[in-house]
C-alpha cells in the first residue's frame, strides 16, 4: 500500500510529537503523519528519580495515542528505510509512504551488545542502567550494604550525558543517609577528561564529588564486563596535553583497581601507580571490582538509519544524520530536516535541546511551503542538563555550542542556576514534568 502525506515525521518521541504539534499550530490543515510503532511514551528525564526511589515509574508513562496531536495521522509501523531521492519512507511491512517534507526524529539506539559481556550480565550480577530499567537500579540501591558502587559510561555519544552522574550523586546521598560511608567506595570511571566542561557547573559538581568522597578515573574506556566475578575491565585512553591525571581522590587505590599487563602471553599484576601504566600502552587492562555497577550503555543512531543517504557515511559523525547545525536542514536534501538525538549536532542530546530545535524546523518547513528559503538559523546549540546532586537539591547546567554558558532569562533572575538548591529541585521534580506533558508535547514554543 502506498500513501502520500505533505509532512512525514519518523519517530513519535519528544522531537516527533513536538514538531507535529507546532506545525499544526503554524499552518492549519496540514496533512501530517507520524510513523512510530510504540504504544507508550516515556518521560525519560525522570528515570533518575525512579532509580533513587523519588518517583514512581508509572508516573513517567503515557499512552502514545493520547499524545498524537489532533488531526495528525499515526502510522503504527516500523521503518525499514528512507529513500530521500524518491521522497519515500519504506516500512517493514513493505508499504511505502511518500512525502513533500520529511522530519527525521528517530532518536537514539541502545546497544547492549556494544561492550563484551554487558548483555549477559545486564539485569543481574549487580549490573543496571537507568537508560533501560531504572526500577532495577532502585532495587540494587536498596540492597546495597557496602562495597564498590561503580558508575561508568561508554566512549560513544549518549543521550543526556549528565545521567550517569546524577544517579551517582543520589547514591552518595543514599549511602550517607544510611551511614554506610565507612565501608563504601563510590567510583566514577569515564573515558572523558573532566567531570563537566562548562563553568560554574564544573566547580559546583566538584564540591559534591568531595562531599560524597567519590573516587574518579578519567580516560577509562570500558571494554568488558565479567558479571560472574563482578569485574569491569577498562583500557586507558591518552589524556590531553600529556596529562597523567587518571586517578583523582584515590591515592591509596581504595577502589580496588588492579592492572594486568600481558607480556609474551604471560599475565602480570601491577600496582595502579606503577610506571608500567603509561597512557595508551597496548596490552594494559585495568580491572575494577564492583558490588553494584551502573552504566550508560553504548549508543548510536538506529542501525537501519545508518545505511540511508541521510546519514554521514564516514568521518567522526558516521551513522548520525547530517544537518546544518543552525537550521536543522539536511545537508544533502533540502526538503528533509532532523530533530533530536539522531542528528550530528555538536551539543548534548537532551529534551531541552529539542525544545529549541523544533521551532526552527517548523519555521523552515513553513518557509519552504511558502516558496521561500529555509533561512531560519536560530538554533545556537542550546541544551541543558538538570543535575540532581541530592534527594532535594539540583543545579541546572545550560550551555550552547563551544561550551558557552547560557541561562534562561527569566529563571536566572530568580535563581542561581549554577548552584545546587531546593527550589531547583522542585523545578526538576514537579515543574519540568508538567511543562513536558502540558506545554512541550502540545506544541507551545517557550
What would your notes on this structure say?
It is a single chain. The chain has 446 residues and is of the alpha/beta class. The chain has ten helices and 24 strands. Strands 1, 2, 5, 6, 7, 8 and 22 form a seven-stranded mixed β-sheet that branches. Helix 1 packs parallel to helix 8 (351-369). The two termini are 39 Å apart. The model is unreliable at 262-268 and 270-282 (pLDDT under 50).
Keyword list:
446 residues, alpha/beta, FAD/NAD(P)-binding domain, 6-stranded mixed beta sheet, 10 helices
Task: Give the secondary structure arrangement, pairings included.
Elements: E1 2-10, H1 14-26, E2 32-35, E3 40-42, H2 47-51, E4 61-63, E5 73-75, E6 79-83, E7 88-91, E8 96-104, E9 109-110, H3 118-121, E10 127-128, H4 134-143, E11 147-152, H5 163-177, E12 184-190, H6 201-211, E13 215-218, E14 220-226, E15 231-236, E16 247-248, E17 257-263, E18 266-270, E19 284-289, E20 292-295, E21 299-300, H7 303-306, E22 336-338, H8 351-369, E23 383-390, E24 393-399, H9 411-414, H10 422-440
Parallel strand pairs: 1-2, 1-8, 2-5, 8-22, 10-20, 11-12, 11-20, 12-13
Antiparallel strand pairs: 3-4, 6-7, 7-8, 9-21, 13-16, 14-15, 15-19, 17-18, 17-19, 23-24
Helix pairs in contact: 1-8
